[in-house]
Amino acid sequence: MNQKFLKLLGGNEAYYPRALETQFARVFNKLLELWETKQAEHYLQDLMMNTRGGTRKGFPPEVASEIFRLANYYNDLHDLDKPLDVWAADRDVVHSQVAKVDYKFTSKGFLQAVEDGDTELAVRLIDGGTNLNIRDERNWTPLIIAAAAGHQEIVLHLLMASVPLDVRDLQGYSALHWAAFNGHAKIVKLLLRHGHEVDVHSHDGWTPLMMAARHGSFLICALLIEQGADVNAQNKDGMSALHKAVIKGHAQVVKLLLSRNADPDAKNNAGTLTIDMALAAGNEEVIELLRLA
Fold first, then answer.
1. Do domains 106-196 and 198-293 have the same CATH topology?
2. Which of 104, 196, 282, 285 has its Cβ near the most Cβ atoms within 10 Å?
C-alpha cells in the first residue's frame, strides 16, 4: 500500500485503490502524480469512460468501482459544485453512449437504473460510492424503488451496503410495504433477514401484512406472521389484515390469519363486523370460514 496515496486519502483505506495499484500500476502512479492538481478531475473523468476511443478496453469491474469511488471522494474533497461529467473526455463518445443507454453517472441516472432494473449499472454505482440515500419526487429511496419493482439483486447489493431500512415515502410507506404490496416474496424475506421492522405503519396505519393480505399474497403473509407481525393490527379506519382479505375474497389468506388468532369478531371504525364484510363481498368460502371460526 502506497503510504503517500493513503495519506492523500486522509488515511481512509476504504478508498484505497488496491486493484488499480496491482493491475494498472501506470495509471495508479499517474493518478498519484496528478491528485493535488486540477488535472486530476479530468484524468478521473477519462478513466471512468467505459471505452476511450480506438480499441482500448475498459477496466474490469473491481477497478472501475475503485475509480468511481475515488472520483466521488475527489468530488467531495474539493466541494465541486457539479457532479463529475464522466463523458467529458470525448463528446462524440458521449452522444453515442447516451443515445444508446440513456444514462449518466448522476443521482438521476442512478435512480433510473434502479427503477429500470439495470443491475450492472446500478451495482457499479453502488459499489462506486454513490449516494444511496437520494430520493425522488415521491420520497422513494433506491431501496424502496428496487423493492417495489422486484429487483432482487439490486435490493441485495443495497442491503449489503448497509442502507437505512427505516426510510419512508411521502405517505409513510417503507420498502417492506411496497415489496409486500407487489408480491415480491424473496425481497420481503431479504428485508426481514436484514432487520427491517415487520410491523412498520404508514401514516394511515397500514402494515405490510395488511398490504399482502389485501392482495392475497399467502406466502408473504406467512413470512410476515412468522416474523411476529401483529395479525390484529388496525389502520386508521379500523381495518385489519383479516378485513382486507375478507373483502377481497382471499380465502386461503383468511384461513391462515384465522389459524394465527386473527379476531373474527373485530369491527372497523364504522362498526362493521367482519362477517358483514364477507356477506357484502359474497364469497361463500370466506363466509363459511368465518362462521366456523
1. yes
2. 196
User: With respect to CATH, is domain 106-196 assigned 1.25.40.20?
Assistant: yes
The secondary structure of the chain, three-state, reads CCHHHHHHCCCCHHHCCHHHHHHCHHHHHHHHHHCCCCHHHHHHHHHCCCCCCCCCCCCCHHHHHHHHHHHHHHHHHCCCCCCCCCCCCCHHHHHHHHHHHCCCCCHHHHHHHHHHCCHHHHHHHHHCCCCCCCCCCCCCCHHHHHHHHCCHHHHHHHHHCCCCCCCCCCCCCCHHHHHHHCCCHHHHHHHHHCCCCCCCCCCCCCCHHHHHHHCCCHHHHHHHHHCCCCCCCECCCCCEHHHHHHHHCCHHHHHHHHHCCCCCCCECCCCCEHHHHHHHHCCHHHHHHHHHC
pLDDT digits (tens, 9 = 90+) for 104-151: 567 788 899 999 999 988 988 888 788 899 999 999 999 999 999 999
